[in-house]
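Many introductory courses stop at the sequence. We go one step further.
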Amino acid sequence: MKKLLTVVSSLIFFLQSYAQDTMGMDEKIDHFFGIATGWFVKIIFWQIPITDEVGLFWVLIPLIVGATFFTIYFGFPNIRLLPTSIRTVRGDFEHVEVDEEQPNVTDHDNPDTIRIEGAQGEVTHFQALTAALSATVGLGNIAGVAVAVVIGGAGATFWMIIAGLIGMSSKFVECTLGVKYREVGEDGKIYGGPMYYLKKGLAEKGLGGVGKILAISFAILCIGGSFGGGNMFQANQAFEIFQSVTGGTESFIHGKGWLFGIVMAILVGIVIIGGIKRIAQVTEKIVPFMALIYVGAAMVVIGMNYTLIPEAIQTIVVKAFSPTAITGGVLGVLVQGFKRAAFSNEAGVGSAAIAHSAVKTKYPASEGLVALLEPFIDTVVVCTITALVIVIGNLEGLYQFGGMDGKTMIEGTSTMLSGVDLTSYVFEQHIPNSSYVLTLAVILFAFSTMISWSYYGLQSWTFVFGKGRNKELTYKLLFCLFVVVGAAAKMGNVLDFSDAMIFGMMVPNMIGLLFLFPKVKDELASYISAIKQKNE
């Protein structure tokens, strides 16, 4: 009876909202969705109060604790094995020259992957890395960092770097397992990710039933996350900044988000129809290009203020331990830094293991070491560069940090800016018309994130609904449809729910990692031994 009353009440609320003529269709959908899913969002993003103003999302605790444990257990692989991971990406250890005219060279295959004898997979180490990076390097590196630094002060940058460094260990563990427990279809396609190591890995430990439940839970959450945070949010923000830079309310595209969405959907569709090989071929070109655009522009801003760099670094370190840096003291600063790093690099969430599973390799640990570079590039490099730009802007007196809402007031005006608008403002003060460059970077970030998350969602979709061309095509068409919906609608509750689903993926994934991490130790020993034999 109680469940029936709940359903009836939800329907009444929906009908009431639908009847309000003042609300648009997207607002009505958003309102109903908030009622139906708000409970889940509250559970995932429930905050443990630290002070009256500062709280810590509980989902960050297992991510931080797990990353710290893996860092210590594996003997600081984020530092000790960094040179090996770089050499692995370059192909120094598995690149074996063979005759490219041999019969096993198939149409459209990558010669670099074929040269790895006796290995199964679809993409190179570098392609797998860029495919995974394209899903994490994005708006969070531009907008999210600005919000974290404004709220937490310059010291948040220090803790963001620390979180990125230990997150490297989590990526190493989950991506090694992703390759170890992947499956290869009759057509050579690779199917991998947490779904498979949860199902197969836990079955080896006599926990097959639990593994299946966790695997299906992860896959369902990943599908939802791919449609929302990995799709609609990206399309929505790309449209917003494009509209803003082309005139705002006076723009030719104003009110035509659907048109922008159709164009994006067509471009996304062209790429994702080709599968992981096409995605990898695109990301290996677009990721370095978009990084060059954004990081290059940021380095120009930093270079123009090179005299402030020592002061900026000193401020970051000092404020990281300053009890007055933010309401909540050192813990408040730490929370902001760790929160931004976790939301940016997704270490421990398990998403990246799906892309890395498709690599052409004989040694699972080799791809774990490649994945180790992700948080380093995403958080330690890109996020830190953004933070330096924001801190330098503060030191120049363009604005002053403060405001628990993440907004800061521009000096001498009544204008309040936050997120990407604040980052764009600093760029404009040093590089005229740089907002156009930033807009291009944001759109590229959004596009690359969408095509990578489409692969994550597709792998999860096939795990739940089964493999087959028609089933895969159904998902891809739905994904493209959601690109249009995301660009055209303003659905805050839908996007909150999708973000919650992405971080909900952490729960089954971390459970699996804590059961299976000893397997990673064995795989690492095997790979290191192979490297030593090759060098002898």
